[in-house]
Amino acid sequence: MAAAAVEVTWDVEYILWAPDCQQRVMIGINGRFPGPNITARAGDVISVTMNNKMHTEGVVIHWHGIRQFGTPWADGTASISQCAVNPGETFIYKFVADKPGTYFYHGHFGMQRAAGLYGSLIVLDSPEQPEPFRHQYDDGGELPMMLLSDWWHQNVYAQAAGLDGKDRHFEWIGEPQTILINGRGQFECTQGPTRKSFEKLLNENVETCVDDQKMCSDQEKCLRRSECGPYCPRSQCAPVVFNVEQGKTYRLRIASTTSLSLLNVKIQGHKMTVVEADGNHVEPFVVDDIDIYSGESYSVLLKADQKPASYWISVGVRGRHPKTVPALAILSYGNGNAAAPPLQLPAGEPPVTPAWNDTQRSKAFTYSIRARKDTNQPPPAAADRQIFLLNTQNLMDGRYRWSINNVSLTLPATPYLGAFHHGLQDSAFDASGELPAAFPGDYDVMRPPANNATTASDRVFRLRHGGVVDVVLQNANMLREEVSETHPWHLHGHDFWVLGYGDGRYDPAAHAAGLNAADPPLRNTAVVFPHG
Amino acid sequence: MAAAAVEVTWDVEYILWAPDCQQRVMIGINGRFPGPNITARAGDVISVTMNNKMHTEGVVIHWHGIRQFGTPWADGTASISQCAVNPGETFIYKFVADKPGTYFYHGHFGMQRAAGLYGSLIVLDSPEQPEPFRHQYDDGGELPMMLLSDWWHQNVYAQAAGLDGKDRHFEWIGEPQTILINGRGQFECTQGPTRKSFEKLLNENVETCVDDQKMCSDQEKCLRRSECGPYCPRSQCAPVVFNVEQGKTYRLRIASTTSLSLLNVKIQGHKMTVVEADGNHVEPFVVDDIDIYSGESYSVLLKADQKPASYWISVGVRGRHPKTVPALAILSYGNGNAAAPPLQLPAGEPPVTPAWNDTQRSKAFTYSIRARKDTNQPPPAAADRQIFLLNTQNLMDGRYRWSINNVSLTLPATPYLGAFHHGLQDSAFDASGELPAAFPGDYDVMRPPANNATTASDRVFRLRHGGVVDVVLQNANMLREEVSETHPWHLHGHDFWVLGYGDGRYDPAAHAAGLNAADPPLRNTAVVFPHG
C-alpha cells in the first residue's frame, strides 16, 4: 500500500471552554478542546501546519510515541529539537507515522499541555505492518480513543507561579478538580444527589435546552452561565458515551496525558484483554481494570457480551490519596433499543477502582506486561554502557527542584539539536563534560535526600549511535519522611525494553540476574514505583 | 551637572499577588507588583537589564513618554522597535532620561500591561533643565507618585479569548472589579458596612495579624486565605497613605495606565494646582478634581492648609457607566499626632467624583490646559502635510476590530525598525503603499459605521524627517446607535501640540481658524471626546 499524506492546518489559540462545565481559558486548536484527532496509516506522512495565534506565548507540539526516524527536528520539544514558534509565526511539522499504535500529541513548552493543548494520534496498521490482534476484534470495532487527563480550575500561569515560588511563596497546586475523559468531565455532578445532573447532561437536547435564564437559544451563552444544574449545549462537558452492539468485540485505545494523576479504568461488568502498549504488541492478558500512568497508552479488546443495557465506566485516581472523584463515562448497547435517546443511567453504582494505596496491585499489573510471543524482538545480549539515574526531590535556592543525580535541568536558549547541527555545542550549552552517570554508593533511597547542594545544568549524555545502553531508573524518598511517589518516565525518539522492576536500591550483584532478557516489553514510557 | 547612570536588573516573572485582597497570578518584576520605581535626573542614562523568567511568554517594556532620541530600538514595542524577548533571554534597555517629568513604563506585548507589568518612572529636573514650578513646593515636598490602573479578576488570557471571540463567542470583559492606586485596591471593602475592613487594613500590624485560620505567623499564607475580612500582611492590598505636614506645599505626580477606565481624582478639602502634563509645563490652574485618561500624567501642587487630620482621596470612574466603586486613599497630616498609628478614618464620606456622564465638565477641564507662558514653545506656523485618522469600531470576519480609516492594524512578525535597518522593508510588511490618509467625505461620524468591509494591514505612513504634520483625530459612533466613547491617543517617540478640540466631524473651513496656535500644550497623549 502506498503511503498517503495526512495534511492538516491548525490555529493554536486561546479559547473559553468548559471542559467540566466550568468555563476557563484554555489553549485550543481550531477553536476547540481537545485538539483534532489525527488518524493515519502506518507509513503515512503526517504534515501539520501550525499557526501560533496566541498573543504572547511561543508554542511547540510533541508527537508522543512517534520516533521521528529521520526527522528529529519534528519532535516538537522546545530547547531540545527546536525554538518555540513565536506568536504570529507558522511551523510545519512533517514526519512519518512509523508504526501502528496508540499515540497522542501535546504542547511541550512550559505548562501548555496542562492548559489543554493535546489530542489523540492513532496510527492504523498496514499490510506491511499488520497488527497480530487485528483479527480478534470486529470490523468497525474500533471505538473512539479514550484520552485521559486531569484538570485544575486554577490557570497554568498561577500554577507555575506557585510551584516555582521561593520558600514560603511556594504553593502546591493540590489535587485536580476533575478527571477528564476525551476532554470532558462534570465537576461536582457525578456523586450522590447531583448524579441526576449527570443524567440530564447525558440526554440534553441542544435544540430544546433551556436554563433558568432562558438563554439557551444561544448554545454557547447558555453553557457559560451554567453551574451544576441544567447545561446546554451538551458539546463541551457532556459525558462520553461508547456505543457497542451486543456480541461484537471492540478495540478500545486508552492513553493518559495527566499532569499528576495515576489512573485506573474499570468497566462495569466487562473484562478487558490488553494487546498493545505504547505502540508495541504485548502478550494478551485479561484484566478487570487497567492502571495507566501519564504518557502511557494501551489497546484493550472488549467483548460486548452482557445484556443490552448501559454500563458505567469509572476512571479513578491511584497512587495519591484521591481528593478528585472518579470520572464517569457510559458504555451503551444501542442495538437492543428502538430509539437511542433518552439514555438511562446504568443500573447500580459505578464500579469502584482499586484502592489508591494498593501498590502491590499496581505492581502486579505492570509486572505482568510481556512482549507478545509471536512478534517478540528480544534485546541485545549485552549493553555498551550503563547509566544510573537517581530521581530526587531537592531544594535549590529555596525552590523545589526535581533532579537526576543531584543535577536539575536548565533548558538552554539555543536548542540542542540546532546547536549540534550548526556546530554551536561549545557555546550553546555546557559541553565541558557529561552529566554524572551514577550516584554515590552510600545513597539511602529510603531516606529524604541529604545532598541538597543540587546544581543546575544543561549538560547532556552523549551516546554512541547504534549503541546499547542499560539505564537504571532509581526512585528515592522525597523530602518528607517515608514518602516516595510513583513516577512515569518517557523517552523521546526511541522505544526501550523494560527489563525489570524492583524495590529499594538497585544492586547489580543481587538484581541483574533477575532481569527479563527473554520477552521484556518495548515501551516509550515506564513507571517506577515508590522507592523502586 | 554630569549625567549619571541609573542601572537596574529586573526579573520579569509570574507572581501570585493580591492587589485588591484577592489573589491572582500577575506578571511581576523582581517578585513584586507593581514593578520597581525608577527615579532618574534629566540627562541620566537609564539601563535596565531585563531577564525574561516567564516560561512561555515573550516580553518587552515600553518607557511611556520617553522620546528615545537616538535610541529608537529601546522604545520597547513588540513588532515596532524590537522582537519580543523570548523566555530565558535577556535584553538591555539603555536610554537617556531626556527631560524632567512624570512617566511610567509598561509591557507592550499582548495584554501584559493589564496583567500587572508596569511601574512609575520619574525624571527629576536638573540645572540644565529646571522646572519653573520647582520653587513653588517645599524641599522634601515630593509625594510618592500616584499610579492609577484598573484590575479584573479574570486573567488576561481569558480576557483576550473573549474579546477576540468570533460571533457569539465574543465575550466582553465587563467593567473592572477594582481601581488600583499604586497597585493596591480593596475589593468590596470600601463601601457601606465593609468600610470597617478598610480601616482594619489601614492599621493592620503585620506581626500581630491573625486570621480565622490562625495562619498569620506566616505573612504570605495569611494573605492568600483572605476574603473581605481580616487581612495580613498589609503589604499587598493595604490602602495607600500620603503623609504631609501642615503648612507645607507638595508636588503630587499622577499617571494612569488603565486598560479601560477614565478616572477622576478628588481630595477631600483640598484644591490642586496643575503644573505639568506628560513631562511638559502647563500654565498653572486650580481645580477641585482632575480627570486623567489612560496614558496621561500630571503633576499638581497641593497645599496642606487644612487642620491636622486625615482626608479621603477618591478615584472615581468617568466616561462609562461605573460598575466599579471608587478607589480610596488617605491624605494624612502626621505632624500633629504624637504617634502615627492607629490611623483614624477621615471624618465624613469620601468626596464624590463628578458624574460619569458629565462630558461637558470633562471637556472644560481638558480645554483649559495651556502651555506655560514663560516656557511656551509654540508650534511652527505651517504643516507639510495633513493626515486625517477616523477611529471606528468595526466587524471583520465576525470579530470586533477597531480600525483607522477602515484599516485594522496587523503587527508584522519582523519589527518595522529592524526591517528598515536591515533593508527588509519590501518583505517584512506591505510596503506597496501608504495607509489611507483620509476618510470618505460623506462619512457620518454620528451614525454607526456602514463601511464594514474593514481590511487588515501592516502598512505604515512615511513622514519626512524633521517634517511638520497636522493630524486630525476623528472620533465616531460605535456599532451601537448613539454611542461614542472617549478615546485617549498616545504617540511614541514624540510630543505633539494639541491645537484644539471640537464636536462632530472636523471641517477645515469651519474649524481651522479656531485652533490655538499661540499656546497649545505639548503632550504625548491626547483625549478625543465622544463624536469629537
From TrEMBL, chains A, B:
GO molecular function terms listed in the Swiss-Prot or TrEMBL record: copper ion binding; oxidoreductase activity
Superkingdom: Eukaryota
Plastocyanin-like domain residues: 12-126, 146-335, 450-532
One Pfam family linked to the record: Cu-oxidase_3
GO cellular component terms listed in the entry, alphabetical order: extracellular region; plasmodesma
PANTHER family: L-ASCORBATE OXIDASE, MULTI-COPPER OXIDASE
NCBIfam families: ascorbase
Family per similarity comment: Belongs to the multicopper oxidase family.
Name the record gives this protein: L-ascorbate oxidase
Protein species of origin: Oryza glumipatula
